Every structure is written in structure tokens, then in C-alpha cells.
Amino acid sequence: MKRHFIMVLCMLLAGVLFPRGETVTAGKAYIWHDRDGNVHFSDQPPPPDQSGGDIEERQFKEAPKPEPKPVSISNDPIERAVQSTFRLTNRMGGGSGFFINDEGLAITAKHVVEKATYSMKAELAGEKKKYSVKIIKKSRKNDLALIQVMIDRPTPYLEIRKTDTLVRGEPVWVVGNPLLAFRETITSGNFSRIFPGKDFRKELKIKAPYEGDWVQFSAPVIGGNSGGPVVDKDGRLIGIVSLGFKAYNAINLAVPASYIEKNFAAQLQ
What we know:
By secondary structure, this protein is of the alpha+beta class. 16% of the residues lie in helices and 38% in strands. The protein has helices at residues 2-17, 77-84, 110-113, 199-202, 259-268; strands at 25-34, 39-42, 51-61, 85-90, 93-99, 105-108, 121-124, 130-138, 145-149, 171-176, 185-195, 214-217, 229-231, 237-245, 248-256. The strands form 3 sheets. Strands 4-5-6-9-8-7 form a 6-stranded antiparallel β-barrel. Strands 10-11-12-15-14-13 form a 6-stranded antiparallel barrel. The longest helix is centred in the N-terminal third of the chain and has 16 residues, at 2-17. The chain starts with a helix and ends with a helix.
């Protein structure tokens, strides 16, 4: 009775764990009786002096790896922007970032990752899991960094809108993680104008922290929003949150979305 039970169990395991129809070979299994009639199941053939009869050899196969679970992407453009945005954290602090393709390639502000270590993690909207992040390239001129989130499934992402198509007064939305505590926060405002980089010294009487022009917008932002996206009503990226003026929260600056291609053309091919 015991022998019969063991044999049935072995056959069930062989059928359930290693189903028919698969082609990936993982190894062999051996079923044999010793001289006392006991049944053995192992991944190695028995020594000649231990087997009391025929040795049954079976090829067993690995079960296929499950396909990554597809992401249900919202039809609402602003909610889709939220799904494409994530929180970045490391020992120095953090900020926000967002995907620009479905393979985990992403953008954030350079100052968010300036002193980052390998401890950096990305926390995606609606998920508890933390994903490792690799810094691919930091811009020399602009407040931009190209990063790779180490994720094994397709990611929702933002399409880039040409900066020269922006119209003064059109509504914009900012997605980010202010104070790194208020996750997936959305604020709204308007596109004000393209602020020329030369006006930092000419009008503000200060040296510009980075080169180039800026997208000026009125949606409120605070620490933790840095690196997050500024999007239009269709959820298209128009800028990357970079600078704000504490005394005037309706005056904030973003790196133009078109600068992504200028800085990382080689990496995006």
C-alpha cells in the first residue's frame, strides 16, 4: 500500500509540475526499487549495487514562465499621465520621474539624481514594489537625466509634444510626489510663456542654474515635484518640473520636453 501511494504521488508530481507539450528541458528523473522493494525517486541514477530491478528514466520539463501581466492603461489622458509617473527615492532624498517608452526608459530632473547612489528606487503608481533604477546619462547643459527602471513588464509612457506648438493660457497639469509624501498628486494651471534663459541675468539679475529656455507655467509645485511631468489636456508631455519661486508659487519653470531629444538622441535610437 505504501509503495503504491509513493508511486502514484511521483506520477502526479511528474504530471502536474512538468506538463506535456512543453519543450524546455530541465533534467531527468529516475524511479527505481531497491533490493527491499522500496520505491525511490531522485534526479540521479542509483548505484549499481543498490538497485533491485529496472530503473525507470523520465525526462522532465520546466513549466513556462508566466507572461508579464499587462497594464490596464486608462483612457483618460490625465490618469494615464499618473500611471506613467513614479516616485524616486534614495538616501539623499528623491523626486519624481516618468516613462518615455514601454521598456522602462524614463526621465527625471538632473538635480534629483545628482548625488544619487545605487540605492535609488522607483515606486510606481498603485504598486508597493520598489524597482531598482540605473542612471544612463545626465545632461551637461539642462536639468535632465535619462534613467532606466529595471522592470520586466511593459510600462505606460508619455508622448512628447513639440514646444513650439504651445499656446499661451492653455491648461496644463503637473503630476508628482510633493514632499515625497503626497504620492500621485495632480495640480493644474496654465502655460504662461517660454521664458528665455538670457532673462535670468537680464530680468532676474541672477545667474541661470542651467542653460536654455524654460516652459513657464502656473500649476503649483513644491519639493518632490522635481523631475515630474507637465502635460497638456491630451496627456502629452510639454515640460519637466525643474524650478519654482517660493514667494510666487504661480511662477514655475520646466525644462522644455523637446530638450529630451536634444540631450539623449543617441540613447533613444
